[in-house]
Specification:
With 180 residues, the chain is α+β, with helices and mostly antiparallel strands. The protein is built from six helices and eleven strands.
């Protein structure tokens, strides 16, 4: 069994297409664990032990169980409308966004937009942003003037796994880091 492929499938279900296995998410993004296991088991080997292993070993801490492990949800990254009950938080002075070269002209023109997701994802440090950007080819890093945005009325949220979220980042709050 390939745990990585199963984790990717779980991500698809809990963030984008629960109907793929015939389940639905509640308004807060929670899925019934028994229904999830039953649905995934129709396509591959899957049980509670495998689900717990995926949640426990996921480097990005994408998933959370409720207290009695009867419900599970993705912490962020949804393209379907759910309210994962994020608290508004005052951000640090600056945050970071990593992307690939192919997106730079669009970002420089219109800023960071959420596209199909509910939020723009930002990193707490430059190193994480570089990792994220590297997934899209040669990384390009932007500094986000988060505190200034916040003072101008933009809302920020911090997901359970440490990813900063906001609805958009206009160009005036971005500074591209150019490697020399």
């Amino acid at each position: 069994m390939n745990l990585t492929r199963t984790s990717c499938f779980l991500s698809l279900i809990l963030r984008h297409k629960p109907e793929t296995i015939g389940i639905s998410l509640d308004e807060h993004g929670w899925a019934n664990v028994d229904e999830l296991i039953e649905g995934i088991s129709k396509t591959r080997e899957f049980n509670m032990d495998i689900l717990e292993e995926i949640v426990r070993t996921d480097e990005k801490e994408r998933y959370s169980f409720n207290e009695d492990k009867t419900l599970i949800r993705a912490n962020q990254g949804h393209s379907i409308p759910v309210d994962v009950e994020l608290e508004k938080v005052e951000p640090p002075e600056e945050l970071w966004h990593g992307t690939g070269e192919k997106y730079v002209s669009s970002i420089d023109e219109i800023g960071l937009i959420r596209k199909s997701r509910l939020y723009v994802h930002l990193s707490k440090d430059k190193e994480t942003a570089v990792k994220v950007g590297s997934r899209h080819g040669k990384p390009v890093i932007y500094t986000v003037k988060a505190r200034e945005m916040y003072q101008d009325g933009y809302e920020f949220f911090l997901s359970k796994n440490g990813v900063w979220l906001t609805k958009e980042v206009p160009v005036k709050y971005l500074e591209k880091i150019v490697k020399e």
